[in-house]
Task: structure prediction
Amino acid sequence: MTNKLLKKIIIFFFLALFFIPLNKTLAVTGQLSLAHNDGAQCFLNNTEIFNNLSRAQTHKYWNRTINIDNKLIAGQNYLACRVSNGDGNRGTFFGFFDAELIVNSQTMIPRNNADWKYFGTGGSIVPPPLDSSNRVWHESLYNDNNWFVGSAPFNGEKGTSVLTRAPDNAWFRKSFYLDPLWFTTNCSSYTNRPACLNVTNCLWTGTYCLNYNSATCSIFNNQADCLTKTGCFWNGTFCASGSSSNCSFYTNKTNCLSLNYCLWTGYSCLESSSAICSNFNNQVDCLTKAGCIWTGSYCSAPSVYNCSYQNNRTSCLNTSGCIWTGSYCVNTSATTCNSFITQIDCLNRLGCYWNGSYCTDSQHFYDQERYNIRNFSLNGCWNPTIHQFDKYKIFPKDVKEIAVESARPLITGLVKYGNKVEVFINNNSIGEAVVKEGEYSGVANFYFKPKQNFIDLSKKLETYQIKLVATNPRDNSVCTTGPISFIIIPYPAPIVHRFGEINYVQRANILSISTRKPLITGLVKYGSIVEIYVDNKMVGKPKIKEGEKTGVANFYMTLPGLTPGQHTLYAIAKKAGQEDIESPSSQVYTFTVK
Result:
């Protein structure tokens, strides 16, 4: 008996589910260009791509260009930047911010006129608050609806509402959209023109197939394919971007002159309205521009041409549009600062400065001045100049002796940048002044206030001498101001009149009271604060009333509970609003509580 084996074939099917999210990072090319003053920090889709917040610098187009390949996502993208002007770096004066973002050769965020969301005002140092979902300012979905809207560039020097004075910060946000279709079609797999052009969003360059949005005009090598891309035209030699009406795209004279508003300079095509005489390099083309003449060697406007004929300073300056450099006459608009060889002629040109040996423009002048201040002119010292001494806001010139009120007088003034200032009273050092700023001007501010009373108030009307000594650690030079004599006029002490049941303390033979919470009254200078001391401990400040007209005010106070036995009592007055000015103590009274 033959057994039949039933063979069963079991087949297993496996299904794997997966998805590609819309915001998947894409391999596209992009670059972000930044102009900023001072430090900056930027995030793209909540990922930090740049941070130099601690660096002080002036702005330029561009301070930094950042490669952002593979950092962009399909759909909505978010760029967030912070500019720090002197907050965390050594920046001064005004700040600046502008940016340009280019993806696959297309401008997504243009410079100069892009609208941005921004946060902050002049002097802002506090960052934007968290939104209602506790997101920070650089996160993609952060709610910035309450932020301001403004157009770049943000230039604090030109009157924008942010980055107007150091230290301050400003925060900026901008979103932009990238079409996912840019990255879904692999045009490069098509190797011939018909197959390439049969696919949506693909273009044939003449050599290979490329995605429509990735194709720039310059990659097309023939007229037919050049014209398939919107915004491109064939200029007779190569494929150019822009409008065919743009003169600058034409590379030969024939095509250039085919447009009645274009002129050929001899080497380039320019619009007639923007071409100037100096653009032309030959006589034939020079004379096609109205108002231009050929001098024999170059093309010139009549006024420029006439300047070269003036061979002395007087006739040159009497000719409109001409300026004398020190050795020859030239058109004002055609010269630069370094053309001038004398100081008087240098300063005759707007925007030029004489630095002592040659003529330079303003930026180079100030850069040189800062260099000189920091490196050469720091040697030596100046006699400190006193601006304020106690109540004297403008210190009298050549003063020999003054009277002050405070035993801790404030002293301010000016000194050479890089100097230290030490303060002496009767030839004894009482401390070193704080010296600030002056890095750019070479002149620094200093101020000094003693930490404690350095004069015994009991020595009434004694004469003291103050001296300020400036030293330069670079060369050990020493400069001195003073000595200046001064006296301290003691602030008037309060007078105690009544104490408990004793109606007039000054005439009492025995100071003995029965109440443990006695009332104390007296007189004090109007505008004073009074402190009452019992057993050398302050127990309170009396209320003060009246005295506006007479200059003498009344004070009164009920003392806290006193223990039986013997005690001491005295009062001190201080000047209201300037409590470092205080009086000697009143008479010290010894009294008994029964």
Q: What stands out?
A: Confidence is low (pLDDT under 50) at residues 1-27. The two ends are 138 Å apart (CA to CA). Residues 54 and 89 are 5 Å apart (CA to CA).
